[in-house]
Amino acid sequence: MIAGLQMIEKDISEKISDELDKIGLLHRLFSRTKDDKSIKEKIIRKIQDGNPYEIDGKKIQDLIRIRIVTYFQDDISLVKKILTDKFIFQNEEIDEFDLTVFKPKRTNIVYSFNSEQTKIFSDTQTSSQNENLLLVDNTFELQLRTMLSEGWHEIDHSLRYKCKSDWESHKEKERLLNGIYANLETNDIALKSLFNELAYQHFKNQNWEALIRTKFRLKFQLIPIKPELIRVFNTDNNLAKKIIKLDRGDLLLKIAKSDLSLPVNINNLVYIINHFELKDEKIYALTPELIKSYSI
Fold it and tell me: Radius of gyration of the chain from Cα atoms?
């Protein structure tokens, strides 16, 4: 049973990593496949909650769980948009903000296996003769978290969600635990704001390389900006002003959806920005032919 499921987990994880590495997104990926013990525990827990799984009804959808931990809060929506184009969407649990309650916000999305993965899963169900697998769907769950909230979610899942009775009659402690999350969420917002303000300071100081790096917050190669590009920006500050005003998420989504696959460095990003947005002839003259030949 394990070999087939691990093959599916590896295939999904590699595809996700390829998509996010293509744009240099700062992230960490964690994955796991439920073992037989965990499947049994979940089935029993649902029976106890009065909402049992059924062969012809609702089934376990997180046999395989992929968790993407992003460095910045705004990358959660970006990852969701990128991956929903690449996988077969089934359903999602995304909590709405409640201004009056300290409560974590889940971003959990369920996608179906592709046809090849479904066949492997079906063969695994048949060969294992494990009746519990009949209560498992051919899906995987994607969880999206920020780096700051990841540790809190692990604590909450292990020490509150799985042992709810420990918290009965201790509502003030539950509120305090949620309050800790609220502080982390505030720090996530402050972190993005800090980098945006820093990017603007680099714009005013005409530090073009630092401007690009802090504006887009990617896993850049340590290759300095070319002197020719510095000269272009020095002679036309309006180009840098346009870059400051760009919607970072929209640009990265365009790159993710394109067929372009280039090393993620400052120079290539400037060429791509110019190709997609700026249309400056001086930068275009410096642009590699591969990018020039790409049709937007």
Answer: 23
Backbone φ and ψ of 90, nearest 5°: -115, -60
How far does Cα 179 stand from its chain's mean position? Answer: 24
Partners of 108 in the beta sheet?
93, 143
Report yes or no: 221 and 183 within 8 Å, Cβ to Cβ. no
Q: 18: part of which helix (H) or strand (E)? A: helix 2-22
Burial of 269 from C-beta contacts in 10 A (0-12 / 13-18 / 19+): buried
Q: Which long-range contacts (CB under 8 A, 24 or more apart) does 14-19 make?
A: 15/86, 16/66, 16/68, 16/83, 16/142, 19/82, 19/83, 19/86, 19/256
Mutual orientation of helices 248-257 and 2-22 as an angle, nearest 10°? 120
SS3 285: coil
Query: What is the pTM assigned to this prediction?
Result: 0.88
Separation of alpha carbons 112 and 280, rounded Å: 43
CA distance 213 to 235: 20
Kindly list the distances between the CA atom of residue 81 and the CA atoms of 76, 146, 246, 249, in Å, as whole numbers in the listed order: 9, 16, 18, 10
Distance of alpha carbon 175 from alpha carbon 178, whole angstroms: 5
Q: What are 71-130's pLDDT values in tens digits?
A: 999 999 999 999 999 999 999 998 776 666 656 678 999 999 999 999 999 999 988 888
Which single residue is written with the structure tokens 């051919």? 138
Task: Return the structure tokens found at 191.
Answer: 């972190």
Closest CA to 143 of 132, 133, 154: 154
Residue 176's identity, in one-letter code, is L
Write down the residue that tokens 């840098």 correspond to.
240
Task: Look at strands 107-112 and 88-94 and give their pairing.
Answer: antiparallel
C-alpha span between 104 and 178 (Å, rounded) = 7
